[in-house]
């Protein structure tokens, strides 16, 4: 088995999807390298000044906050290979606010090394 095949087998997109959809922060964080980087771009964090999280502890704090919120998560349009994964996550809050996030992941040895999220929030119903 080649290195690329091992990396593909080691990264389980279905398990990540399940963790996201069940708001399981600990499981989500387990997919990241210790030195992973995460970048988030949205209306409050434009491309010129995105949110940047470096290292698993910072990424863990982010996911614990997100997963503690009362909201639903649905993952779709998912695809992955040995080096990359991408998907769209659709979230809904009880007050009717919806968020759509397009995420791309760079993988290294079957773990997330770089994560980019570009997201859009409902302008009228979200605070």
UniProtKB/TrEMBL annotation:
InterPro entries per the record?
Answer: NTF2-like_dom_sf (IPR032710), SnoaL-like (IPR037401)
Which part of the chain is the SnoaL-like domain?
Answer: 15-115
Gene3D superfamilies xrefs:
3.10.450.50
Protein name per the record: SnoaL-like domain-containing protein
Per the UniProt entry, what species is this protein from, by scientific name?
Answer: Neoroseomonas lacus
């Amino acid at each position: 088995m080649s290195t690329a095949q091992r990396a593909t087998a080691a990264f389980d997109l279905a398990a990540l999807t399940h963790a996201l959809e069940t708001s399981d922060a600990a499981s989500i964080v387990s997919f990241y390298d210790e030195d992973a980087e995460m970048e988030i771009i949205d209306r409050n964090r434009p491309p010129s000044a995105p949110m940047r999280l470096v290292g698993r502890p910072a990424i863990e704090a982010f996911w614990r906050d997100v997963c503690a919120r009362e909201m639903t998560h649905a993952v779709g349009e998912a695809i992955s290979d040995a080096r990359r994964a991408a998907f769209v996550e659709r979230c809904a809050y009880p007050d009717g606010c919806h968020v759509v996030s397009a995420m791309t992941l760079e993988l290294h040895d079957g773990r997330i090394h770089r994560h980019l999220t570009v997201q859009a929030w409902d302008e009228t119903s979200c605070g």
